[in-house]
Amino acid sequence: MILHRTIPAKRLLALLASVCMATAMGACSPNGDSQSQQQPSSQSSATADAGNVAIFAPTDSITISQQTPLSKWEKLVPEIVSSLKRTGVKSGDITVKTASNLDKQSQSVQDYVVNHINGTEHSSTKAKTTLVVAPVAEMPESDRQYGDYARHDITWNSDASDEDEQDYAQSAQRLVSALQLAQNEGMKVVLISNTLQGYAPDVYVPMTTAEQIGELQAKELVNKLELDKASSDAPKQIEVLLPYDAADGHDAKTDTSFAQNMFKGIWKVLEPYFKDGKAASPSETLTASTTKDDWRSVAFDSSKAEQIKSVLAERLDADKDDSHPVHLDGVISCNDYVAKNIADELDKLGYTGSSADINPSISISGIVDSITGKKDLKRQAVPDPAKTSSSNDDSDSDNKENAKWPIITGYGAYISSMPNIVNGKQWMTAMENRKALADDIAQTCVRLNTSGKLSKLGFIRSATVEGKKITTIHEETLAISADNLKKTLIEPGYISLADAGL
Q: For residue 181, how many C-alpha atoms fall within 13 Å in the half-sphere facing its CB?
């Protein structure tokens, strides 16, 4: 197959300028599945100089489970649109397009840019246009369990011999050329989450990386279990369950980089405690000699819920003797889909209580009262979980102690996980600060279309992207547990009391 190279930006402009007047081009590619919508133009409060904003986002990914994380494109895009309107952009000047793959998205962006260039006589109008682009990334099923925003950088090999890789490279290069063309014509580009190989936008909106997700959960576990106060005489018992898509022979090229980076973040935090003997793994999948490259020792195929449960049962030797539970202090589940199945299996294996039991100052009734507004919740320092009895004459006491519920971490803020957060079965989850990001992106677009000055915006930072220092939008990831669920999710309107099982 001959790879049709993407036309460089300047040549593309010259070519299209000569033919576009004779060729009718739609708002989106006729062979794509992009959904395009221009907002109704009735808005009296919009200012006249806020410019145009075009949003290009992926369609929501579909997961094998029926559980849905709060980090979905179908949630973020409407919030950006609403924020744009509040910030002064006319409804008729906002365009939204979605696509299911990079090929269709690149066609859609190219069509918009060319149409906008040829349909706009004044350069000042072009300069008042910002493209907000979230590049479509191909993700393994296990990566989708973290939500739509988790960062997947887009790279390609222009000289690849594989036909699919050639097509992908062509699509990616088309998107980059279209964005560069837009910038050359005075338009601005805000890139969300996934970077593009060799491309530098005007503003970048970084989302949480796999390494950051792993590091966040490990830090939350360390703090909750007070590992700094643990000793080698009574190490905390920790398991890590790392989901990934195992190659099945038909797809030997399955990308495992997300899982690898996830473990890298986890082990960056936990390694010192394992080396000092303050932490151990009941299954011995993690030891003092484990390195960040040993991710496969804790990885498993998470394509089916029963596989998650069976892996945990095997780690705890439950198939050998379920009458003597294994003492377990904490489980890093990586995402809420895995966490839910771990909680179900622990319940089946006879583990009792909740993460709230590890902190006597917090009771389940106190958590519920706090969330429903009956009283404020005040936390005190977390004491060490009770140590396993060493008496050989009191096996019943040992079993009861060993069967105490461990700390379980997750990520994604699945609506279906909220009841488990409230009742303490899952200690914490996390998600992007979606509403704040929507407001930030809207303010950035208007500033780019008007004054161009971003430095006075409180959320503006800078970072190196593709070797170039770029302006970035920064919001902290939301770490969510029962004691702050009301403030972080219910009051801002992410979920309702009913979603939390109340």
A: 29
Which ranges of 359-495 would DSSP assign to H, the alpha helix?
364-371, 395-402, 418-422, 434-449, 485
| 53, 93 Cβ separation under 8 angstroms | yes
Q: Which residues contact 228 (CB under 8 A, 6 or more apart)?
A: 222, 278
Whether the predicted pLDDT of 492 surpasses 90: yes
Are 56 and 105 contacting, i.e. CB atoms less than 8 angstroms apart? Answer: yes
**Cα 136 to Cα 101: distance, rounded to the nearest angstrom:** 6
Q: Are 203 and 188 in contact (CB under 8 A)?
A: yes
CA distances (Å), 478 to each of 292, 417, 475, 486, in order? 26, 15, 9, 13
Mean pLDDT of the chain: 85
Q: What average pLDDT does range 303-319 have in this prediction?
A: 88
CB 154 within 8 A of CB 438: no
* pLDDT attached to residue 451: 87
Beta-strand pair 52-58/468-473: unpaired
- Please report, to the nearest 10 degrees, the dihedral formed by the alpha carbons of residues 474, 480, 485, 490 taken in order: 40
Integer Rg of the chain from CA: 25
Domains, the chain, in order of start with CATH, read: 9-208+432-476 (3.40.50.2300), 210-430 (3.40.50.2300)
pLDDT digits (tens, 9 = 90+) for 16-35: 444 343 333 344 444 445 55
Percent of the chain clearing pLDDT 90 (strictly above): 67
Mean pLDDT within 90-113: 97
Q: CA–CA separation, 446 vs 104, rounded Å? A: 27
Cα separation, 95 vs 57, in Å, equals 11
Burial tier of 491 (Cβ tally within 10 Å: 0-12, 13-18, 19+): exposed
CA-CA distance, 487 to 183, in Å (whole number)?
40
User: Interior CA angle at 442 toward 437 and 444, to 5°?
Assistant: 95
Above 80 in pLDDT, residue 199?
yes
Please, which residues have CB within 8 angstroms of residue 483's CB and are 6 or more apart in sequence? 362, 367, 370, 377, 379
